[in-house]
Design a protein that fits this description.
This protein is of the alpha/beta class. The protein has a single domain, classed as Alpha-Beta Barrel (TIM Barrel), CATH 3.20.20.70. It has nine helices and eleven strands. The chain has an eight-stranded parallel barrel with strand order 1-2-3-4-7-9-10-11, surrounded by five helices. Strands 6-5-8 form a three-stranded antiparallel β-sheet. Helix 3 runs parallel beside helix 4. The longest helix has 19 residues, at about 260-275. The model has no long low-confidence stretch (mean pLDDT about 95).
Length: about 280
Amino acid sequence: MLKEVIGVIHLPRLPSVYSSVDLNSIIDYAVREARLLEELGYSGVIVENYGDKPYSKRVRDPVTLCSMTSIVREVVKSTSLKIGVNLLRNSGREAYSVAVASGAKFIRVNALVETIISDSGVIEPEASRLRPLRINYPDIEIYADILVKHASSLRLALSILEAENSVTSKGSLEDYYRELVGDYVERGGASALVVTGLRTGEPPPIRLLELTKKYSPIPVLAGSGVTLENIDKVARIVDGVIVGSYIKKQGKAGNPTDPDRAKQLILKIRELTQLTHT
């Protein structure tokens, strides 16, 4: 049964040292999006710097970081939703700092214990950078992507080679995945795992959801490609969903939320929940 249904607020390009953008209009947009999802019955939202493509490995621009903090703070003040922060591509430490300053409850991290190869370059794990913050500000949850979309896991690639070598192999590919899940929990300290497809808007393979749920002692969320057509299959496996593309106008990431699409999905989820209880 789904315990969390989290919508995504895809922000437009944020202000920076190099470009002046009307921050107040972005704040108004984010608050409208959050209030709409709250009225429809979503349990939370992730505020994401989606419009800042192409993404740097880290967000270092001070104007951008201050702007993100202001936006998230207003969303927190304007709703009773569980609010999260995602700073693409993998600015976990900065997102955590924004969460501390704004009152957000969780962050999403694309590479917590994996080294990934992406269009932003080679991105190293974020867990060690987060450690001091987590010691001093322990109340922020970390929703960690595993085998994140738009990237390849260097660790998984090496595991595939190892698993196929009869001399050096220590186990099957499933064994290596079980080990990876364990490291997210035991070494990375993840609060929840997020499973995605290859790209934004593409669903994760059902088998991958099943494997993650099989080995994870913490909640597992489907983090991309959730639709009205596949929610029944996905909801049988995971503890929650993060929905971005499907609930946007024309089903396109980056667009404003479509009230009808967002409503249809949440009504379907409620229907499935009622069926589970009968």
